[in-house]
Amino acid sequence: MSWRTVIISSQAKLDYKMGYVVVRGTETKRILIDEISVLLLENPAVALTGCLIEALVEKKVKVIFCDSKHNPCAELVSHHGSHDSSAKIRSQFGWSNDIKAIVWQEIVTEKIRKQKEFLENLCKEEEAALLDSYIGQVERLDSTNREGHAAKVYFNALFGMHFTRSSETPVNAALNYGYSLILSVFNREITANGYLTQLGIFHDNMFNHFNLGSDLMEPFRIIVDRAVVGMQIEDFSKEEKHSLWGILEDTVYIDSKKQSVRNAIKIYTRSVFDAINDSDIALLKFYYFISDGR
Question: Are the C-beta atoms of 159 and 166 separated by less than 8 Å?
């Protein structure tokens, strides 16, 4: 099973040889490709051979490319993530609006619940109570925008009344970076299951190649929020970025078992597809923290 997150920070040439990624930089290292789940190319001066790209796609390794500021700017997405991808894509186009509306309602409800639980952990009782009242008000497709109302209360409780998600601050840079990491893992699982990332449940921006990943990741944003609050960021630099990669190996509970966040994303993603294809939201599997008391 792949489990490693490999970060290439310096100029290097990456090649493939006999099951290994060969990293040729100031020194030469070899990494077994079967162990790699995510390959982050943090330096734009990293070069990959075509043979390695083919092997990475075959092994379903998520490859993320960064810009000159070390922020994710692109990722490698295979055309065929599953042997029956044509059938999966046909079914995806046929998903009914009713089941998509109900599943989105469940996803938004779970996201707000996770936000409420985090605020309770921080002893933000008044704001948590307000979010708790929103949970029962989420309608199909969240037509009353409880998600948006909850987000304002939630982020102001976390970072202060003057905080906005649009401002250029180290906190927002950290949140955006963490969310992009989570999104990349979701995109890997979506393509591995044979579906299109472009065709979402709720998100349908024609310029967003990852509408479905943007849908599915919503309850997992809180994992990033918890990490960023705990870091008490004053400057978002390379060290903080590498620290955020650790959230993928954090432990959560899903389907009554301990799992890493990475594995929880895999289990949850498959459960969403099962719920939609079988028109049964009882098949949805959400993660939780042991502190949630479930």
Answer: no
Give the model confidence (pLDDT) of 221-255 as tens digits: 999 999 999 998 888 988 899 899 899 999 999 99
Look up residue 57 and give its amino acid. V
pTM: 0.85
Give 291's pLDDT tier (boundaries 50, 70, 90): low
Supply the pLDDT for residue 293. 46
